[in-house]
Design a protein that fits this description.
Distance between the termini of chain A: 62 Å
Strand content of chain B: under 5%
Distance between the termini of chain B: 71 Å
Oligomer: heterodimer
Order of helices and strands of chain A: H
Shape of chain B: globular
Radius of gyration of chain A: 18 Å
CATH topology of the largest domain in chain B: Sodium/glucose cotransporter
Structural class of chain B: mainly alpha
């Protein structure tokens, strides 16, 4: 079976989706770290 | 170490070498050997990029840093996600689409041969030395912890890595990286779970104890150029550092040049952006957990067993007296830690008492470390031994083996990437460019394999010397960081349509000279050197290009 070649459209859509996830993960991770600092750091 | 742990390590190392070579295809052409015929999927490249950056010192030293200094080190990585996004829309499509084997090859197309050769030369110097340092760090720790000669420890890491890198090229490196990244994450998560289960207090109490000593201060918003890790040095300096490392360092560029398409290469970089901060937070939290655990279980006064043995041999009586003081101070600190755990939300007084007891312990430890320096004549670097000692003495059989395999994995993946990149730059940017431009692929492949072996031996030799010079790793890191910013500046210039070759070449030299002055003549911390280098190269490069245009 020939290998499927990803089209440019699907690649840029995947880039956008991944980028959105990156932003969400970073906001959540940094937010949790900040909360931990505010809660436990006198 | 128990034989089951050794068995896990040996089985893992053999599997990585054999499977890495087995998965390598079409390595009889330079395109297959250097860039995998641009055939790798984004997730393979992404894991390889992450594994390359996560060296053994991250596995060994970073939890130690979490235990002694807390979470603030994570600020170094604040710029990474932004850098990855910027690279994804700038340098990645540029390099991937240009059909080059090295990042520096592109600079000749854009500017001239001397700019290419100078940047490639700087890469070979800084990365050749750092490959040795990357190998030395785990070599020293494994040698001290297991009581084996340093040369054996270096050989255990170096020989299998050179073999699979030499035979399989970038594909063997990338597939080994995939396994290594998975193993590292499994080992860290498993250690975190065991730590939580074995901890004598609950997680809320543990975090309160860690917070009392400042170890949960993640963000420092002060703008102080002489402070190493702040929010601003991380966001600004860190972005430039990551742009330089992931955008212009051949050990990283070569990974995404092997991706199927520019889109896959971009997605692979975003994978690092995704996971780096959470993963680094996990590593540091494990270290903080070890610190809390050691409030209730007495750790050794000195973590490095070889240095402890040297001190006992030379200053037995004085060290025994110190051990007695330490045992008493530990009992008092343990009681103070329990008081913090039991105090609930109003723990100010208990925390103050605990901090005072912790300071007593640090004073005693300081005296022990001073003894080490007196006896051995070298800085102790005790932080790097905290985590291996914890793993080997406190974790169940099997998990300790998994961790040591993880250390090997991290060391091998970083070194393999460096060797592969050093070999590629040596052959493509120097041998093929200046010595034999028209040879057959088979000839270049033979030279590449020879170059990999040469850089492997070079790294092993540097590693054995680096081990005797305690601060060399820091020196190499600083040395590397003053090249990074200037090299990034050249690539940024390459994206400006009006920039000329003369501006790039002299801009690079003046940028490096400026960073050299900043590094040795001021107290500005090294993350800012990346910003300064890039900005100076850009300004000088643009100015000289304009003067050149006006003269023309």
């Amino acid at each position: 079976m020939p290998e499927e070649i990803p089209s440019e459209g699907s690649e840029s859509s995947r880039f956008r989706t991944t980028l959105l996830r990156v932003i969400i993960i970073q906001v959540v991770a940094l937010g949790l770290l900040l909360l931990m600092q505010l809660r436990y750091q006198p | 170490m128990h034989w089951i742990n050794w068995l896990i390590v040996v089985v893992y190392v053999v599997w990585v070498v054999v499977d890495g070579i087995r998965k390598s295809k079409d390595t009889d052409t330079i395109s297959g050997y250097f860039v995998a015929n641009k055939s790798l999927s984004w997730w393979v490249v992404g894991l390889s990029v992450m594994a390359t950056q996560l060296s053994a010192i991250t596995m060994i030293g970073t939890p130690g840093q979490g235990a002694t200094d807390g979470m603030r080190f994570i600020q170094l990585y604040l710029g990474l996600p932004l850098a990855m996004v910027i690279l994804g829309v700038t340098i990645v499509p540029l390099l991937h689409g240009s059909g080059v084997y090295t990042a520096y090859e592109y600079l000749e197309r854009r500017f001239d041969a001397r700019t290419r050769s100078l940047t490639a030369f700087l890469f070979l110097i800084s990365r050749g030395l750092s490959a040795g340092a990357i190998m030395a760090a785990p070599g020293v720790v494994l040698s001290a912890v297991f009581g084996i000669p340093l040369v054996w420890a270096v050989a255990l890491i170096g020989v299998p890595t050179v073999i699979y890198t030499m035979i399989g090229g970038v594909q063997a490196v990338a597939w080994a990286d995939v396994k290594q990244m998975v193993l590292i994450v499994i080992a860290l998560v498993a250690i975190m779970i065991v730590l939580i289960i074995q901890m004598p207090v609950n997680p809320d109490e543990a975090l309160r104890i860690a917070g009392a000593t400042g170890r949960l201060r993640v963000f420092d918003f002060s703008f102080d150029l002489s402070e190493r890790y702040t929010f601003w040095s991380g966001v600004i300096g860190g972005t430039f550092l990551m742009l330089s490392y992931f955008g212009t360092d051949q050990s990283q560029v070569q990974r995404y040049l092997a991706a199927k398409s520019a889109g896959e290469a971009k997605s692979s970089l975003l994978m690092s952006a995704y996971w780096k901060i959470p993963l680094q937070a996990l590593v540091l939290l494990v270290g903080v957990g070890v610190f809390v655990y050691y409030q209730f279980v007495r750790p050794p006064l000195l973590y490095n067993p070889a240095q402890e043995a040297a001190v006992v041999a030379e200053r037995g009586a004085a060290y025994d007296a110190l051990q007695n003081d330490y045992a008493q101070a530990f009992t008092l600190r343990e009681a103070a830690a329990r008081a913090v755990a039991d105090a609930g939300d109003d723990a100010t007084a208990a925390m103050e008492a605990f901090v005072a007891r912790e300071a007593d312990i640090q004073t005693i430890r300081g005296e022990a470390l001073a003894m080490v320096e007196d006896v051995t004549g070298e800085a102790s670097g005790d932080t790097n031994y905290i985590f291996p000692r914890f793993v080997l003495s406190e974790l169940p059989i099997g998990l300790a083996g998994l961790f040591i395999a993880g250390v090997f994995a991290a060391a091998m993946s970083s070194i393999a990437a460096e060797l592969n990149a050093l070999s590629t730059a040596s052959v493509i940017d120097f041998y093929r460019r200046w010595i034999r431009p028209d040879a057959a692929d088979a000839h270049y492949l033979a030279v590449s394999k020879g170059a990999t072996a040469f850089w492997g031996v070079f790294a092993c030799v540097v590693a054995t010397y680096a081990a005797t010079l305690g601060s060399l790793i820091e020196v190499v890191n600083r040395f590397g960081s003053f090249f990074y910013g200037s090299i990034l500046g050249v690539f940024l210039l390459a994206m400006l349509p009006r920039a000329k070759a003369r501006g790039a070449f002299y801009g690079l030299i003046i940028g490096m000279a400026t960073v050299g002055f900043v590094a040795f003549g001021t107290t500005i911390e090294f993350l800012w050197q990346n910003v300064i280098g890039a900005v100076v190269v850009l300004l000088v490069g643009v100015t000289l290009s304009r003067i050149g245009s006006a003269e023309a």
